[in-house]
């Protein structure tokens, strides 16, 4: 096919969002097989072959369908052009809401599922990817459609639901899972949680900020998958955030960030976690934590530096107002000053003095943005007693004097 590369790219994007993608023939027998055993089990229990055949017969050429099934899960479906035999692309399921028992029980009653299936559906919904912003997938499939149909004018989008295809009684084909099957589901769910956590540790420890967007889209689903050990849902959420904070600490440590930096951010989030007062507030904090820890690894990882240089950098960050001269640093480490100077320049690309000055001016910018302290006071907090020298350094790095900079940010 002329769009093999684009189809492969689409599958990779969907995989990043944990969305299954399979291909079924437009005519003849089909075998829908999802990557997740839990999804396969639920769909084998609830759908029969006739219902899928009815759905396939509805699909027109040059149309991308946004489907919602009787379990309120969503899909994208389309007939792929230039395939022999003709294939249908099925991407999903995914959902844009979290399915708690408050959602599941009315749904089961509406479609006539026996109460014995509630545990299976609990596990099933926790395995369905949560896509909070549906516009993301729409944009992806719109771009794909433009490629395979050659122009945006050559295809359209349509919505379709199982309820318009067949009666629910024609679709349901339910048998009750055994206790062993339910136990297997729970084991698989735990395995999925640990796998997701390990993926998170890898992303953060390597400072892969571009990967966090895919991961944080499903952080809410991960929280829901965790065992709800207390009746207070907010306390459960806070507990999971505490676990997440601990995981992120270890990831940052693995990324060679010094404990000085890790402890600062970890302590700040410990306080923020206890202020969570809603599910929405907790979700935002989780995403913020992942991003900030990832940024910290990118900015403060010392993996590439020799131990003496690492110690100098940490000392500078922790005591900007102290004597940070080359002589003082060499005496602290009990090594030759010339050796330290050459090593520092070789590994950082700047002299020790240039590095210290940049750190001091960066801190001055922070203080100018967050306080009303006088310029002379800020200079002293940054370890520079001569305000004229401080002003000269500040202008060299920022392009404006401290006074001019403060006036600019207060406009």
The best one-word shape is elongated
- Helix residue percentage: 55-70%
Biggest sheet record: 5 strands, mixed
The DSSP helix count reads: 20
| Helix-strand string | HEHHEEEHHHEHHHHHHHHHHHHHH
Please give the alpha-carbon distance between the first and last residues.
58 Å
Low-confidence runs of at least 5 consecutive residues = 163-172
Q: Mind telling me the C-alpha Rg?
A: 28 Å
- How big a fraction of the residues is strand? 5-15%
For the residues shown, what is the average pLDDT? 83
Keywords:
single chain, 411 residues, alpha+beta, Arc Repressor Mutant, subunit A, five-stranded mixed sheet, 5 strands, 61% helix, 8% strand
Please provide a written account of the structure.
The protein is an alpha+beta fold. The chain folds into three domains: 4-177, no CATH class; 180-300, no CATH class; 307-409, Arc Repressor Mutant, subunit A (Orthogonal Bundle). It has helices spanning 4-16, 37-46, 49-58, 101-111, 118-127, 134-148, 168-171, 179-205, 209-216, 219-225, 233-254, 259-273, 279-300, 307-318, 326-333, 337-348, 352-370, 375-381, 387-398, 402-409; strands at residues 21-25, 63-68, 74-79, 87-94, 156-161. A five-stranded mixed beta sheet has the order 1-4-3-2-5. A hairpin with a 5-residue loop joins strand 2 (63-68) and strand 3.
